[in-house]
Amino acid sequence: MPPRTIKAAIQDALEDLTEKKFKKFCAALLDRRGEPRVKRSSVEGQDYITIAQVLVSTFTEPGALRITLELLREIDCNEEAERLGELPHEPKRISIISISQSIFAHGPSAGASAGRTMSGDKHFVDTHRTALIQRVSTVPPLLDELLDRGIIKQEDCHHVGYQEPVL
C-alpha cells in the first residue's frame, strides 16, 4: 500500500475530532497570528475535507502538517496530534541549506545544464527566484541555521529585521 499523503492524514485527524473540538480547531486556525493567514470565508461552515484542503493550499503539505500539529496541541487534542505526528507520511525533505549553499557557492546558475527551463537558457532557480523566496514562511529558523553554519554573519541577520533568540 502506498504511503498516505499528508493531506489524507490531516483529513483523518480532523474527521476524528468531536464537533466541538473541530470548531475549536477552526477557531484556532482563524486566530493564528502567523503568516500566511487563512480567510474566514475559507473556514466557516466547512467540513474536515475542505479544511484539510485549505491547510494544504495555504501552507503546502509539510507546513500544513506543522500547523495542524500546533493547533491540535493548542486545543488540547494531544492524543490526536501524537497519532498524526507518528504516521509515516512526511515526504523526504530537501535541505534549504544545501540548496542555498549550492546557489551561493557557484553563482546564480549553478547546475544550469540540468535545470534549464523549456522557455530559455535560465536556470529554474533564476526563473522562479521571486516565487521561491515568497514561499519561505519561517525566516528566523532559516537565518539561525545559516548563521550557525557560517554562511552569513550576524550583521546580515539584522538587515532582515531578525533578532537573536533569547537563550
Automatic annotation (TrEMBL):
<dbReference type="InterPro" id="IPR001315">
    <property type="entry name" value="CARD"/>
</dbReference>
<feature type="domain" description="Pyrin">
    <location>
        <begin position="1"/>
        <end position="90"/>
    </location>
</feature>
<dbReference type="InterPro" id="IPR004020">
    <property type="entry name" value="DAPIN"/>
</dbReference>
<dbReference type="Pfam" id="PF02758">
    <property type="entry name" value="PYRIN"/>
</dbReference>
<dbReference type="Pfam" id="PF00619">
    <property type="entry name" value="CARD"/>
</dbReference>
<feature type="domain" description="CARD">
    <location>
        <begin position="117"/>
        <end position="167"/>
    </location>
</feature>
<dbReference type="InterPro" id="IPR011029">
    <property type="entry name" value="DEATH-like_dom_sf"/>
</dbReference>
<dbReference type="GO" id="GO:0042981">
    <property type="term" value="P:regulation of apoptotic process"/>
</dbReference>
<protein>
    <submittedName>
        <fullName>PYD and CARD domain containing</fullName>
    </submittedName>
</protein>
